[in-house]
Amino acid sequence: IDHGQFDRENDVDFLTGCALLVKKEVIERVGFLDPQYFNFNEDADWCIRAKAAGYRLVYVPKSKIWHRLAVSMGGRFSPFHIYYRIRNNLLLVTKNKFPITAYIYPLIYYPLQILIWTLLTFNIKGFQAAVAGIIDFFNGNLGRGTLFSK
After folding, report:
1. DSSP string computed for 98-134
2. How many angstroms separate the Cα of 131 from the Cα of each of 43, 94, 111, 149?
3. Helices 79-95 and 42-52, interaxial angle, to 10°?
4. Which residues contact 142 (CB under 8 A, 6 or more apart)?
5. Angle at Cα 103 formed by Cα 33 and Cα 119, nearest 5°?
6. Rounded to an integer, what distance in angstroms lies between the CA atom of residue 67 and that of residue 61?
């Protein structure tokens, strides 16, 4: 709930990739988005690298962007969304050496959420996408996936 706490510029740890304004020198130093992700978390990974390079990530409240979450991918529970979300969460926590507890979400919590949703909606494709995302991560199948590409 917005009680005015977002009315001033503030340093943050993450800026969504759907609305970044970045100077050329930052791209030259930090690099581009990592293509291993293909979709999801490439912006989080880039923000981690930018902060490590000494850059500030600044939220500017006067800027406006409208972004409909996951619409182009068939929604939050589409196999495409589930596959990349799980696989790339695992890539993000591994590549950036997060603590072991960071694996709870992509290996336990999110797959269980998908399993419950699958059981309630009788749609097994979401759970298959979650399992495929985990398997592909551990097999090193990164970048654009084969099973759940659009």
Report:
1. --GGGGHIIIIIHHHHHHHHHHHHT-THHHHHHHHHH
2. 24, 18, 8, 15
3. 20
4. 36, 37, 38, 87, 91, 136
5. 100
6. 15
Which residues, including other chains, have CB under 8 Å from residue 15's CB and lie 6 or more apart?
A: 43, 47, 57, 59
- Tokens 């909606």 sit at which residue? 121
Q: Residue 75: left if φ>0, alpha if ψ -120 to 50, beta else—which one? A: left
| One pLDDT digit (tens) per residue for the chain, 150 residues | 889 888 999 999 999 888 888 999 999 999 999 999 988 899 999 999 999 999 999 999 888 887 766 556 666 678 888 899 889 999 999 999 988 888 888 888 888 888 888 888 887 888 888 889 889 999 999 998 766 554
CA torsion angle 88 90 92 94 (round to 10): -150
The token pair that represents 90 in the structure block = 């695992």
Rg of the chain taking only CA atoms, in angstroms: 17
- ∠ Cα 106 107 110 (to 5°): 55
Q: Model pTM?
A: 0.82
Distance (Å, whole) CA 19 – CA 42: 13
